[in-house]
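Input (structure):
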């Protein structure tokens, strides 16, 4: 008796649920979760890893420089662009924040790179990677040694994924290398 009641309740639920939203119980249903997940896995498999290398120019818009004292140091903020050639080609429009290890009264009186600093540039890259169109967020972070040599890295996300090693000079540019995954 319990089995008949269980089957009757199950059948009634199937008919009621199947007829909701104007559907007939025998109409085809939307794709199941496993089918949708299969499509997502197919898109993920289209991602490919690419070994990159090349050069970039750093173009600084000095008219946008702001200086804010931070204790005995100076927070410098500026806008600019990174222009890439090589495996990665295109432009990243950026806003940079650098903590200069010098007082703000001295920072604008000397060439860029005179004082040591740590910096972070937040950018949006538009261009190509290995000839394929690409767009991504880009963080450029590093440390500037007195004299202007940069040891840093690019971190791409949201379209291109990866971290690249960078060797550069402040307000000039440099080289990059490493692997990225393009989606």
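Output (sequence):
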């Amino acid at each position: 008796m319990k089995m008949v009641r269980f089957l009757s309740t199950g059948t009634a639920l199937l008919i009621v649920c199947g007829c909701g939203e104007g559907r007939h119980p025998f109409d085809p249903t939307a794709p199941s979760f496993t089918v949708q997940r299969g499509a997502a896995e197919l898109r993920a498999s289209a991602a490919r890893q690419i070994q990159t290398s090349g050069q970039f120019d750093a173009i600084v818009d000095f008219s946008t420089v702001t200086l804010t004292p931070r204790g005995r140091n100076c927070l410098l903020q500026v806008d600019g662009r990174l222009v890439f050639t090589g495996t990665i080609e295109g432009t990243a429009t950026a806003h940079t924040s650098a903590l200069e290890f010098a007082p703000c009264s001295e920072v604008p009186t000397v060439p860029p790179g005179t004082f040591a600093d740590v910096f972070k540039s937040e950018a949006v890259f538009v261009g190509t990677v290995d000839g394929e169109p690409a767009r991504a967020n880009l963080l450029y972070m590093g440390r500037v040694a007195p004299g202007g040599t940069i040891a840093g890295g690019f971190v791409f996300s949201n379209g291109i994924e990866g971290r690249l090693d960078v060797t550069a000079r402040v307000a000039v540019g440099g080289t990059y290398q490493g692997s990225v995954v393009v989606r």
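Notes: Confidence is low (pLDDT under 50) at residues 1-42. The helical segments are 2-19, 33-45.
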